[in-house]
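Fold this sequence, please.
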Amino acid sequence: MYSFSRLLILASVIILPVHAQWQSAYYRDHVLVGKTYDVAAEEFIDSDSLTEMIAAQDIILLGETHSNPDHHQLQANIIQTLIDGGHALTLVLEMLNAGDDVETQQKSSEQLVQQLEKVSPGWDWPVYQPVINVARLAQLGLYGGNIDKPQQHLIMRDPQRCQFDIQAHSVNLCQALPASGQEYIKQTIYHSHCGYMPIEHTQGMAHVQMAKDTSMAIGVAASSIQTKAVLLAGSTHIRKDIGVPAQLEKLAKASLSIAILPVHPERLEATDYWPRDSELAPYDIVIFTPSDTNQDPCIEFSKQLEKMRARK
């Protein structure tokens, strides 16, 4: 049991960066930046309250924008708070495939980044330096939660197939979520591709998304038997309505979903960041940060497509 004074000491680690310490350049003066919102209570909370909430949970899901350095610093702060509280932890990462685990003992941060780049290329591992440093100093391993590329391709190629083996579990992807949840994922995929992908092609990608969430849920559920389990994943993956928490419920596991979200210049209220008519709020807690980009995502996506075509 934590004393109030102990909680105050731990909370000091989670204090959000002041204006001058934010690394992301855009919208630092936004009214929500640096605030933490309790979605169920419909109110902003302080670091003490957040510390109490994470101390009480066995599974903590930390959502991120992969490219935002402030998100990884805040993740590291939360992990450090749990370590300082004497909690045994297992870190599970979306960025690593199940089985591609990386031990951190007797390695420098630079060596770990190099190893991670070899084990799981394609991710910007240097931006994860705050998390890597905390894990290294506490000698915490980094454990994979995702499905590998061959399995993703297998699922994608046969969108009508339902049954797949995921981490030794037989999973029916056609029933992984209610129809409304699956349709939401397909619409999200369609809009994220800015109209370049026919809507009928999104079924396979939706199955891949649900397979990833199922795999991560299995990983953190198993880890939480012996220690607290902390998952680092994109914010969509930790949504309570369509992501890892929905799959954890099937495993009779509760979780705390903490989304670290970049602010948008036209969204000034916390509730502007998810549909107001949602039957289930997507997150338990939202922490707001500056954004690492001010570009329209569809313009950026179009530029990426042009680069891909130029390489052909």
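The chain has ten helices and ten strands. The radius of gyration is 19 Å.
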